[in-house]
Triacylglycerol lipase
Amino acid sequence: MVAIVTFLYSNIMPLIGSTVHTKRLKLCDHGRICLTTFAYSCLVSVIYHIVFMIWMIPNVASWTDFLYSVLVCVVTLSILFWNGIINVYLFSVQLGIKHRVIGILCGLIPIANLFALGKIVKVVKDEVVTEESKYLLNESRKDKEICRTKYPILFVHGVFFRDFKNFNYWGRIPKELEKNGCKVYYGNHQSALSVKDSAKELAERIRNIVAETNCKKVNIIAHSKGGLDVRYAIAKENIGEMVASLTTINTPHKGCEFADYLLTKVPKSIQNKIATTYNTSLRQLGDKNPDFMASVNDLTASGVKAINEDIGEEHLDNIYCQSFGSILNKATSGKFPLNLSYHLVKYFDGKNDGLVSIKSFPWGENYTLLTVKGNRGISHGDMIDLNRENIKGFDVREFYVQLVSDLKNRNL
């Protein structure tokens, strides 16, 4: 009876009155309910069979019924467990690699497996609640198109990354903006070049977008080194009249002092070997002529100082400029390798996001420093949704929705 009730509840109830709207979330929620039901059913089954066993001790003939009951429950609970775990492992985004590995390693360890299962259920439940809330929010404001700006958005990536088709540098952000009426373009420039050379590529990209779409101008959102690239392009490549706004995200406007230190301590032979390996690999991924060392040198404090002097007085009278930065409150809250670089950056530059210090972020008319309560904070990668992680206290997708909505309100 316990097995039958368990099976029916976990497989039929999720299909009745479910308020989850997307297929992926329905499968995640189904898996969560299966695992939750499995845990409680295990407890009920154990108590039931202990009572059954005590009751039948005087009656030896009842052992057959007992073993049959145990077998039915084991089979049913196994089906329930694997139904749930397969669904959450396949369709959950927030579980990530860590929780999946922990679940596998703790699977056969008593007590530890219960804690691992509880954590998995909680993560998936939070994911379903968060994503369903976002779905409903976007549906409620769909007609308003709060991100339909006058000029389209151009996303400009940072160093050592490309605008890959199957792995978006900006995570879930562009789709969230598009759901709210935004038109999105990408820089499509190479992953590692000097600021000067990246600026040339971006300037050409902007000219092409304006010519092909007749949009006249673009709103640029640039992350990390991308902010320096765009500033240089505006100053030196005569595209200022094609830029309505420039928002820099965690850009090292004053460079990174720890990078100067590394370049003086790491032998040239090792630097050249790393550069050769990187440049060779990125050519295979689509870069025409990547230059690892040029990009690294342009991110040092001395390198950015020279760039700022070369740019000179920036004539940005008709361009709305703003900057954002973030801070990790504790090194261990950053994903690898930012949890390691945090200490090095802090030693030379002070508080930082794992790569760039807070003193290097400010630029433009408005500057905002972001963080969250507690130990976590917000890393360099978190600001572009690199890990597709839902961070408590900071909804990165909604942050960009409100950022772009503000641009719309400014008639940009």
